Amino acid sequence: MNAYARTAETYLTQRILNASPEQQAALIMEAGQLHLGRAIQALTKNDPVAAANSFLRVTEVLREATIRLNLEEGNELAQSLNKLYDFWAQELLAGSASKNIARLEAVAQGMGEIRQAWEQFHEKKNAPAQPSSFNLGNQIV
């Protein structure tokens, strides 16, 4: 890993550590997309070592995303995400073994959609409260 890559990785780690839980979830998905993109590039360049290293990183990302789910609460969203992450892990394994780029790109696209959903949730959660107004006769107060 070159100096630039180490610096970028350190920066991403700091962003994750200083983020809210939903920002952390989004950043984890971003990391998954990044490493999956690298794996796909390595496959197309016929570089099995780089592909294997990148797939390992994507697997670690999915493991981290799964660990962060609050399955104890029985939340339907957490259960659904757990199933989705498990499905993605299976797709990564099958897609990498068969070098099926379309299958891998579908996982990357799904990660992007989940990342965007977490980002939107964070924005809505942290949006400033809108002042309420009410009608008092002809005046809006």
From TrEMBL:
Signal peptide: none annotated. Keywords: Bacterial flagellum biogenesis, Cell projection, Chaperone, Cilium, Cytoplasm, Flagellum. One of its GO terms (biological process) is bacterial-type flagellum assembly. The lineage of its organism: Bacteria, Pseudomonadati, Acidobacteriota, Holophagae, Holophagales. GO terms for cellular component: cytosol. InterPro entries: FliS (IPR003713), FliS_sf (IPR036584). SUPFAM superfamilies: Flagellar export chaperone FliS (SSF101116). PANTHER family: FLAGELLAR SECRETION CHAPERONE FLIS. It comes from the Bacteria. It is found in: Cytoplasm, Cytosol. Its main location: cytoplasm. This is Flagellar protein FliS. Belongs to the FliS family.
